[in-house]
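> tool_call: predict_assembly(chains=two)
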Amino acid sequence: MPATAAATVAFDHVSKRYSGTAASHAGAVEDLSFEVPAGRICVLVGPSGCGKTTSLKMVNRLIEPTSGRILIDGEDAADRDVIELRRSIGYVIQQVGLFPHQTVGQNVETVPRLLGWDESRRAARVDELLTLVGLEPADRDRYPAQLSGGERQRVGVARALAADPPLMLMDEPFGAVDPIVRERLQNEFLRLQANLAKTILFVTHDIDEAIKMGDLVAVMQVGGHLAQFGTPEEILANPASEFVARFVGADRGLKRLALTRVDALEPEPAITATAGEDAGAVRRSVASSGPDYVLLIDDDRRPIGWVRTRDLPESGPVTPDLAVETSPILDRMTTLKDALAMLLEAGVQAGVVVDAAGAVDGLLTVDAIAARLRPAG
Amino acid sequence: MDLAWIVNHLDELGLRTLQHFGLAALGVAAGFVIAFGLSLVAVRIRPTYGPIVAVSGILYTIPSLAMFAALVPITGLSLLTAEVPLVLYTLLIFVRNIVAGFDSVPPDVLEAADAMGYPGGTRLARIEIPLALPLIVAGLRLASVSTIGLVTISGILGDRFGGLGFFIFEGYRHVFPTEIFAGAVPSVILALVVDRVLVGLGGRLAPWRRERAPR
């Protein structure tokens, strides 16, 4: 995929007022200013009527601002030819808006066709895009009515990416599919974005989706005011107002845990014994520190289970059958939120952190995770 | 039934059927063009829809015999006199169906088309008209069937018009039922055939509607 430079987007005191004065009109936007650096996902999130969709549609001028400027790579969108502007911006909406009378292939090649690409170039691009979004090139001849909701949404993303736009607008793009498909589409899209590095404005009403998808989050409130703009971490750790605190929810501490992975914490050292090692030696080495349990590992340092210190024989080797119980195994890529859930479910104080090869790194305790819940500083 | 009469008049029957079809096709075609223009106005400038439908509706209520009679002093016993009523009677059917066709295009599809950078005319040609086609074709079927029936009345204007209606008027004058049947039955068959052809055409123009089954 050819990598086009991503665009920066800046809202500069943008307002949209409806029917004269009513500032609280649903969809109105009041003096919105923020800047999204190139290659980042910025999520606009807020309750319905807060103006987030209006803000999005002002970028490709489906709605014209009442005042203020929207700068794309420094250039005012209002100064550009509106047709040319729209062809350079990808657009994905919740209802997808696929053209029902056109095949998947024809849908995907919409913008390249409008731009006058020749047929062989369009065909090659369609194949490339369908593969990219997880469909088969053979799907090109199907009609939208023959696709599942998730497949339709993938076609919508492929169509938006067709002319390799430096900027994408996505309005609740995964809102119309069931939670399991949504989760999968979100993950796939984040993987795609890791390579594409487009600048993306993404609208959702779901704070969890905002935290998951956003490099930056703009929390908006009714009346079209920007309540807070920052990274998900900043917004969860230091909500700027009562409104933001309530909107992100009482469980914002827990939500922050979902942003951090196990490898961000230094694991506590584990007292280990290798299977086959002389039990007497192990007994003597732990006697002074006095833990009730040692962690039994194999020759590759992979965990086998816990051995009660007083169960260790006076002599002879430590054998795997002495292991009484095991703790949750925590991959270093597990989020702290998932790790905490695993520990609480197992009813234990510590989990075993392993590396990519499954070898023991150390222990992660509930206390260590809880320490992360307290706001920094 | 006088079969010998029918056999002796097969040539004339064929010619009259062709004339019948020609008169109907001209009326439907002209009506479609006018109604399409009116429908575009009604769709783009919504407040005009009510008045356009109201006027078409009033025209539709005028008895056909009266309309022919009223036109003769103005346009004489001409083709124009034969066609104007046929055209006016299609307007209501066409306008209602064409506007319903455009209204059936989902708003999210139009929004997506705008956001992709379709210029207005291209959007109309590639997105709106194709999606409105099923309802437009439904209107075409209705208008065709009703116009084919109506053509017979234009026989009142003389031998040069009326299509198969010519036989109906002749049969009525001579109290000769065979000739009435010879006019009426082919007219009905013509209407049915045209309807079937249009159904086939509609399916061909909208292949995406036939392939709904998941793979």
